[in-house]
Write a sequence for this structure.
């Protein structure tokens, strides 16, 4: 299962991603599956956890309202401020290298890979808010996106692109109710950012794709949509893994 999950801030990408991960552990036998959800400044690292259990605890505490979003939990406040103080030229270079790092063959040697944002976040947020990557600038992100997707086709031809979206009113309501630490968008930016995500989604060369609308759907309902939409997109290998996992469960093995 190889997924690229994208969407405007506050659309629900993190919640949806964790729902999918939990489902994958149960049905695909992917106990160590973790998303690469660190492509927004200054949240550019994995949560610090000494074990899978500790990592899962971050998730459960966050879902229960007892802790921070795991995707924002990796760095100290001081470290985050140091990153935000970097000049745009350094930020651009670092993020370009970070994305290229996630295109290495080694990342796709395992049967599962889940990325969140990746080059979509850069194509939209960098020119609007970070001060680099605009059309005509060095390493313009619209051009870089096409290069990234050519490489993704080579290393992960079975990749599925999932756009998570919500109405502008819903995004605004979520922003006001629970603003993200070091959040990117403001209420005035919502419609533009949503349009840009839709445009990048339509322009993407990743043809195995679908959209999840979280406006009125609960996390459980979004997961049901995921399972339904994935039915024609599973690889033969994924189907065999699910069948094997079901049989092992029936026989009482702790999978």
């Amino acid at each position: 299962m190889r997924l690229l999950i994208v969407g405007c801030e506050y659309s629900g990408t993190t919640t949806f991603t964790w729902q999918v991960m939990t489902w994958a552990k149960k049905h695909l036998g992917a106990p160590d599956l973790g998303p690469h959800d660190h492509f927004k400044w200054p949240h550019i690292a994995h949560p610090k956890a000494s074990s899978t259990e500790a990592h899962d605890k971050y998730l459960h505490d966050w879902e229960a309202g007892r802790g921070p979003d795991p995707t924002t939990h990796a760095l100290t406040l001081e470290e985050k401020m140091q990153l935000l103080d970097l000049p745009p030229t350094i930020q651009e270079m670092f993020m370009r290298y970070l994305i290229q790092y996630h295109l290495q063959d080694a990342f796709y040697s395992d049967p599962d890979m889940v990325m969140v944002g990746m080059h979509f976040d850069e194509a939209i947020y960098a020119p609007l808010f970070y001060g680099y990557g605009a059309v005509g600038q060095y390493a313009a992100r619209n051009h870089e996106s096409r290069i990234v997707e050519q490489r993704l086709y080579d290393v992960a031809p079975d990749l599925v692109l999932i756009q998570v979206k919500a109405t502008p009113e819903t995004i605004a309501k979520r922003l006001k109710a629970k603003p993200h630490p070091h959040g990117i968008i403001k209420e005035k930016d919502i419609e533009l950012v949503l349009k840009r995500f839709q445009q990048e989604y339509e322009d993407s060369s990743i043809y195995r794709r679908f959209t999840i609308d979280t406006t009125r759907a609960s996390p459980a309902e979004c997961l049901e949509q995921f399972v339904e939409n994935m039915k024609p997109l599973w690889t033969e290998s994924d189907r065999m893994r699910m069948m094997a996992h079901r049989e092992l469960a029936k026989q009482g093995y702790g999978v």
